[in-house]
Amino acid sequence: MQRASRQLPLFSAEPEEPGQVSGFSVRESARAKRLSIKVFPRGRVEVVVPRRTRARDVRAFVEENRAWIERSRDAFAAEHEPELFALPDVIHLPTIDQVVRVRYKFVADTKSIRYHYAGGVLTLTGQTRSDKLCVKALRRWLSTTARREFEPRLRALSVLTEAPFKKIQVRAQRTCWGSRSSTGTISINLCLLFLTPDLTRYLMIHELCHGRHMNHSKRFWRLVASYEPEYRELDRKLTESWRQVPTWLGLY
Question: Is 220 helix (H, G, I), strand (E, B) or coil?
């Protein structure tokens, strides 16, 4: 389970900005006891801090660890070839077996973008010369699509596992594929749309089973195994599945 956290003001490149995947972001967490740094495989750096941490303390912490950050980035770069940012013309969503074409219609006298989906074509209309606004519009469409597709699947698996939940949230999570709160809310990462159906199904079973065991005890894994015997292999694949999420989303 992950408690709510909020974004603090950034002191370097904003990770949501297209092409700035190597930027820094700061995330305040209610669970954090000390400052920590995470380097993502595509080079983005996230600093997790306890509540009410001063900005100057964050800067000092990053400077103290800059050498480690650069070594981590270099190690990832040696294993994964850098990917340039580019808005998509086609979006592949394996978990729901859809291939969507994307069209961009520029309108000069507007500062926003609206989207329309029909017949396998997603049309963005408005200030499409702004990569940032295009990415935000694409995320909105993905979120709507994920909620429509995931909720009935989750409810069907809830019946199968006899593990009820209260509501579903769809989010663009950076640090996990899903989570369940003690109040019965299951959060699903919209990026699961880019993964295979078996991984999405496993993630849903995993979070539903947390309704009985809010931990990763032996009893929890036995329960997961009763509904998904291949959970070990699926869990391993899920850990590496960030590779399937397109760079233009700016999350990994």
Answer: helix
Round to whole Å and give the CA distance between 52 and 177.
27
3-state secondary structure of 191: helix
Residue 159, Cβ neighbours under 10 Å: how many?
Answer: 9
* Distance in angstroms (rounded) separating the CA atoms of residues 142 and 148: 10
Of 178, 176, 168, 180, nearest in space to 210 by CA: 180
The answer, yes or no, to whether residue 98 has pLDDT greater than 70, is yes
- Reported as a single tens digit per residue, the pLDDT across 154-190 is 999 999 999 999 999 999 987 789 999 989 999 999 9
Phi/psi of residue 99, nearest 5 degrees: -120, 120
The full set of domain ranges for the chain reads: 5-79, 90-249
Q: Can you read off the two tokens belonging to residue 226?
A: 């009763």
Q: Which of 175, 115, 176 is nearest to 142 (CA)?
A: 115
Which residue matches tokens 């700035």? 20
Token duo for residue 173: 């999570």
Show the DSSP H helices in the chain as ranges: 55-64, 66-79, 131-161, 197-209, 218-227, 231-239
Contact 180, 207 (CB under 8 A): yes
Tokens of 184: 């019965």
CA dihedral 242, 33, 4, 184 (to 10 degrees): 90
In 3D space, the residue among 224, 159, 137, 145 whose CA is nearest the CA of residue 191 turns out to be 145
* CATH architecture designation of domain 90-249: 2-Layer Sandwich (3.30)
